[in-house]
Amino acid sequence: MRHVLDHVMAVTARPSSVMVEGSGSWLRDSEGRTYLDFVQGWAVNCLGHTHPVMVEALRVQAERLINCSPAYHNGPMARLATLIAETSGLDHVFLCNSGAEANEGAIKLARKWGQINRGGAYEIITMHGSFHGRTLATMSASGKPAFERLFEPKVAGFRKVPLNDLDAVGDAITDRTVAVMVEPIQGEAGVVPATDGYLRALRQLTQERGVLLILDEIQTGIGRTGLLYAFQHTGVVPDIMTLGKGLGGGVPLAALVAGARASCFEAGDQGGTFNGNALMAAVGCAVVETVRRPGFLAAVREASAHLAAGLGSLAARHGHGEVRGRGLLLALALARGDAGEVVAQALERGLLINAPRPDTLRFMPALTVSPDEIDRMLALLEPCLG
């Protein structure tokens, strides 16, 4: 199999395993090894691998219509936009292909709003440690240290302040400021939450200062934190929200969502060849409708409590640190900077976990993960923590 991999561009470090099949929380490689997957495509596969509702949605829609071009409406596009609008309390939805594309659209929408409503203001305040994507503008918006010297010159117009520091945001707002952009939980920074109180105060501050609030819910949206959207824990409603990852449950699907006040795109301002295609939108409908079923999110919260308690017990036994996060986006702080080694040892034992920082393990299982699978994960992880 090695020669087959020689032509894959090396943009990330990958083990040599070639995954060929998945079901629920489990993956199987070409050599027949099975893995318990607590990465799930970086919180993408919210229903796990090859969930029946997704498979059926793909089959049924592929037999009817795949893509009629975004120049025309299609039924799944309209249905998914309605589902997102009705569940979020926002008004307009632009479907796209990736979280980075959704965030790029949010930046463009905010700048257009600033041209119309704020005298040409264009600057967006973002947070140290943030991650908003890998387009040039979203990398420029991100506060990820590794991005600082890449692909210079960056896109101008982003001011970065510490997360959870309201005074720093207030001091950074000027006549050039059009929006504040924040993740409810900074996943790539090591699962660092914005506190509920901070988000509420940030909403009040942005309203008082006449700028937009953009919530990047690419990683936290669609049930990941135990509610459909993370902002629902706070009662805060943003002007603009972005969704991705879990929205498609594993297929390329994302959304730019805006309230009527901020929704100022006109024909020709935004677009994309595959955006809102019927095939992906049909899957998105199946995913959202499944996550909205009675009892689903309560089960996510129960699984979260079980996982957090188990990680806390492991940490106490082996001298590690805190458990952070919400719902099924959790992190364990390690006492040593050897998270990469722990991940490698776990892989050898058939467990897939992620290390966003040298001192942090991140856990993003399927929202359908069972208590037995959580216990199995903890048993596989424990020998790697000694």
Short description:
This protein is α/β, with parallel strands linked by helices. Helix content is 35%, strand content 18%. The protein contains twelve helices and 17 strands.
How does the overall form come out from the CA principal axes? globular
Structural class of the helix and strand makeup? alpha/beta
pLDDT < 50 stretches:
none
Report, as a whole number of angstroms, the end-to-end distance. 34 Å
Can you walk me through this structure?
- The chain is an alpha/beta fold and 386 residues long.
- The protein has 12 helices and 17 strands.
- It has helices at 2-5, 40-43, 52-62, 75-88, 99-117, 136-141, 166-172, 196-209, 278-291, 296-318, 339-348, 371-381; strands spanning 19-23, 26-29, 34-37, 92-96, 123-127, 158-161, 177-182, 185-186, 192-193, 212-216, 240-243, 254-258, 323-326, 329-333, 351-352, 354-357, 360-363.
- A 7-stranded mixed beta sheet has the order 4-12-11-10-7-5-6, sandwiched between helices.
- Helix 3 (52-62) packs antiparallel against helix 9, helix 4 runs parallel beside helix 9 and helix 10 packs parallel to helix 12.
- It is globular and about 60 Å long.
- The mean pLDDT is 96.
